[in-house]
Structures are given as structure tokens and as C-alpha cells.
Amino acid sequence: MIQIFGVIGDPIGHSLSPEMHNAAYHALGLDCIYLPFHVRAERLRDAIEGAGALGIRGLNVTVPHKVAVMELVEPDLLARKIGAVNTIDFATLKGYNTDVAGITGSLESAGVDLRGKRVLLLGAGGAARAAAFASIEAGCKLVIANRTRSKGEKLADELGRGVNAIGLEDDEIGPAIAESDVLINATSVGMYPEIDKIPIRPELLHPDLVVFDLIYNPLETMLLSEAKKKGCKTISGVKMLVYQGAASFRIWLGIDPPVDVMETVVRERLIL
Ligand code: ATR
């Protein structure tokens, strides 16, 4: 019997997940389908209960439901630490967060071993939390730089273990970049339609830095294009999108998805 998967969010029309997952099912000849579901906040409980009753196998959860859905499923330890669920497995009613796997998978696929690296993380919102946990799990020395310093400090306090928080001003961010191996942008600066924006001055970049921008639209942000010019290794947010989806796929189906097929589909969609 066909297995049904999907993504719930509000809005949901822009989601690239349906095409990405359906391409993977097709490539592997699986009798599965992945659909987008527009679910408003006030119907979230109905949607989760209804999905379970209908025999839906798994759902991804996107903005604005990632936190609220925690109360409706049984979040695993990592999802609880991050404070957000993006994957539900209805076979167990467990909730997971695959964003951390998305970040580590992206770095691994680019040949970057995060273990023990000095990471400078820009941002302190939802995406930054996943990047922060990925860094901590890999034993990195982490510095969080956020526009609203208090928010960065709050996240640093929560993480403990010598995590520092700074602002985005040149006098602080300059020395921090000079002392970092990996720079992860988890702010929304440079995201479509504001594609000519960059979160830091490009002069501060150095060639030994790996620059990972979690933004996937545009495919190459201003930050990545400037980093390339400087000779840095760069990683696009497309990888994060693909590898978090791949981790959800593994949870639901217990097999490895064709990540190359998934990435190709997403890239094609983003170029259109
Ligand atoms: P997401 O879930 O994508 O992480 P978010 O939780 O709204 O989104 O977080 C957005 C991040 O981008 C925050 O760290 C935000 O900084 P503030 O905490 O100061 O708001 C950062 N950000 C957004 N616009 C920015 C800008 N123009 N300059 C610098 N940082 C910005």
C-alpha cells in the first residue's frame, strides 16, 4: 500500500520538500508520496491527530509549528534540547529535529570535519540553535555573534562549556573571524529578495576559513560569493536543506536516500 508523507506549515506553497522527497522515492522505486499541507496554528492539534488517524507515515514540520508541535508528540532528547521538532514519525509518534544532522551532513559532504574546530556562528535564532548544537556535539570552540547581543548571550549561557557571545560590530567580529576555522551564517541577512546584503564586511574573511551559509535562496549569497573571491571553501544552504531532508527520510524508511538526486531537484527549482 502507498505510504503517505508530507510537510505542514503556514505558508507552505514555497516548500521544496515535496519535490525533493518525491524525486528520491521515484529514484528508488518506492511506493510513497510526499504532499504539502497548509495547516494554520489553531488547527495544528487537529492536523496531527488527523494525520495519525489517517495512517500518514511521517510529517515534516516547518514555520510556524516547530515549537508548538512539541506538545503533541514525544520529542527525542536532541529535539528537546533544541526546543523544536521538524520531523514526526507516526509509527511511534516520536518527534525529531534533523536540522543538526543537516548541518553535520553538509559539512561532511564538503569534506569538512567539524570535530574540534573553532566555529564562529552568526545569529541566535532557530537555525542558529541547530548549528550551535551541531558545533557543541562536535566538541568545537564556539563563538556566537548576534545583532541583539542579549539573545546571543542567552543562547551561549544555555550551551555552557565556555561558549562566548559577541556583537556583529567590526571590532569584535574582526578578531573572532581571524581566530576561526569555520564561519556559519544563521542570520537571514542576504536572503531573497535582499540578495545584495552581507552580514559581515568581506575584508574580514581569510582563505583558511570554511564559510557555510544556511541561506539557500539565492543559491550563492553575497557572503558565499565574496568568500569564494577570498579563496575560502564555501558551502551553500542547499546542502542543509537536502541533508535535513535526507535525515528525515532515514528516520521514516530506515534506508539511505539518493542525496545527489534530491540536491539536483532542489537546485533546478531554485534556478527557475
Ligand atoms: P531562523 O529561524 O531562520 O533562525 P529567526 O529565529 O527569526 O530565524 O532568527 C533570525 C536571525 O537573523 C537572528 O539571529 C537575527 O538577529 P536578532 O536576534 O538581532 O534579531 C538575525 N538577523 C535578522 N536580520 C538581521 C540583520 N539585518 N542584521 C543582523 N542580523 C539579523
TrEMBL record:
<keyword id="KW-0560">Oxidoreductase</keyword>
<feature type="binding site">
    <location>
        <position position="244"/>
    </location>
    <ligand>
        <name>shikimate</name>
    </ligand>
</feature>
<feature type="binding site">
    <location>
        <position position="237"/>
    </location>
    <ligand>
        <name>NADP(+)</name>
    </ligand>
</feature>
<feature type="domain" description="Shikimate dehydrogenase substrate binding N-terminal">
    <location>
        <begin position="7"/>
        <end position="88"/>
    </location>
</feature>
<feature type="binding site">
    <location>
        <position position="62"/>
    </location>
    <ligand>
        <name>shikimate</name>
    </ligand>
</feature>
<comment type="pathway">
    <text>Metabolic intermediate biosynthesis; chorismate biosynthesis; chorismate from D-erythrose 4-phosphate and phosphoenolpyruvate: step 4/7.</text>
</comment>
<feature type="binding site">
    <location>
        <position position="86"/>
    </location>
    <ligand>
        <name>shikimate</name>
    </ligand>
</feature>
<dbReference type="GO" id="GO:0050661">
    <property type="term" value="F:NADP binding"/>
</dbReference>
<feature type="binding site">
    <location>
        <begin position="15"/>
        <end position="17"/>
    </location>
    <ligand>
        <name>shikimate</name>
    </ligand>
</feature>
<dbReference type="GO" id="GO:0009423">
    <property type="term" value="P:chorismate biosynthetic process"/>
</dbReference>
<dbReference type="Pfam" id="PF08501">
    <property type="entry name" value="Shikimate_dh_N"/>
</dbReference>
<dbReference type="InterPro" id="IPR011342">
    <property type="entry name" value="Shikimate_DH"/>
</dbReference>
<dbReference type="InterPro" id="IPR036291">
    <property type="entry name" value="NAD(P)-bd_dom_sf"/>
</dbReference>
<dbReference type="InterPro" id="IPR041121">
    <property type="entry name" value="SDH_C"/>
</dbReference>
<feature type="domain" description="Quinate/shikimate 5-dehydrogenase/glutamyl-tRNA reductase">
    <location>
        <begin position="113"/>
        <end position="188"/>
    </location>
</feature>
<feature type="binding site">
    <location>
        <position position="216"/>
    </location>
    <ligand>
        <name>shikimate</name>
    </ligand>
</feature>
<feature type="binding site">
    <location>
        <begin position="146"/>
        <end position="151"/>
    </location>
    <ligand>
        <name>NADP(+)</name>
    </ligand>
</feature>
<feature type="domain" description="SDH C-terminal">
    <location>
        <begin position="237"/>
        <end position="267"/>
    </location>
</feature>
<keyword id="KW-0057">Aromatic amino acid biosynthesis</keyword>
<comment type="function">
    <text>Involved in the biosynthesis of the chorismate, which leads to the biosynthesis of aromatic amino acids. Catalyzes the reversible NADPH linked reduction of 3-dehydroshikimate (DHSA) to yield shikimate (SA).</text>
</comment>
<keyword id="KW-0028">Amino-acid biosynthesis</keyword>
<protein>
    <recommendedName>
        <fullName>Shikimate dehydrogenase (NADP(+))</fullName>
        <ecNumber>1.1.1.25</ecNumber>
    </recommendedName>
</protein>
<feature type="binding site">
    <location>
        <position position="214"/>
    </location>
    <ligand>
        <name>NADP(+)</name>
    </ligand>
</feature>
<dbReference type="GO" id="GO:0019632">
    <property type="term" value="P:shikimate metabolic process"/>
</dbReference>
<feature type="active site" description="Proton acceptor">
    <location>
        <position position="66"/>
    </location>
</feature>
<feature type="binding site">
    <location>
        <position position="99"/>
    </location>
    <ligand>
        <name>shikimate</name>
    </ligand>
</feature>
<comment type="similarity">
    <text>Belongs to the shikimate dehydrogenase family.</text>
</comment>
<dbReference type="GO" id="GO:0004764">
    <property type="term" value="F:shikimate 3-dehydrogenase (NADP+) activity"/>
</dbReference>
<dbReference type="Pfam" id="PF18317">
    <property type="entry name" value="SDH_C"/>
</dbReference>
<keyword id="KW-0521">NADP</keyword>
<dbReference type="Pfam" id="PF01488">
    <property type="entry name" value="Shikimate_DH"/>
</dbReference>
<dbReference type="GO" id="GO:0008652">
    <property type="term" value="P:amino acid biosynthetic process"/>
</dbReference>
<dbReference type="InterPro" id="IPR022893">
    <property type="entry name" value="Shikimate_DH_fam"/>
</dbReference>
<dbReference type="InterPro" id="IPR046346">
    <property type="entry name" value="Aminoacid_DH-like_N_sf"/>
</dbReference>
<feature type="binding site">
    <location>
        <begin position="123"/>
        <end position="127"/>
    </location>
    <ligand>
        <name>NADP(+)</name>
    </ligand>
</feature>
<dbReference type="InterPro" id="IPR006151">
    <property type="entry name" value="Shikm_DH/Glu-tRNA_Rdtase"/>
</dbReference>
<comment type="subunit">
    <text>Homodimer.</text>
</comment>
<dbReference type="GO" id="GO:0009073">
    <property type="term" value="P:aromatic amino acid family biosynthetic process"/>
</dbReference>
<dbReference type="InterPro" id="IPR013708">
    <property type="entry name" value="Shikimate_DH-bd_N"/>
</dbReference>
